[in-house]
Amino acid sequence: MKTIDHLDRAILEHLNLDARQSFADIGKQVGISGPAVGERVRRLKDNGVIDGFGVGINLRALGYTLQALVRIKPRSGELHKVEKLIAQQPRFMSCERVTGDDCFVAKLALTDVAELDDVLLPLHDCAETHTSIIKSHVIEPRLPPLIPD
Description:
4 strands, elongated, 5 helices, alpha+beta, 19% strand, Alpha-Beta Plaits, 4-stranded antiparallel β-sheet, Arc Repressor Mutant, subunit A
């Protein structure tokens, strides 16, 4: 794990809230200059602490009114086939390989519940699936506590 100090932690927290903030604005909030923030961000990227910048997307604004979590248990000898099918289906927004009875937990974006059949049908010959519709988000994605130096 990379060592970061209190200023690095503060910069990461500000970037996590809004990665489009200028370095000057972040610098004012953490008590250093904009160029110093830029240098620290460059170092954090070079050290692999920051691995990219993204954008938050409102899925509802794009017509996706539902999200679902799907636990997927491949049948014997079908692991790689299932992994490939998941990767090829663009409605899967993320997929983790996990321990336990299921090998994968994936997150889907859907315009309506009827799409579940279209998305999951190709998997049914080679895997067992268990689907849960997401009703609401209790916690949005966030940083874990940043470990002190």
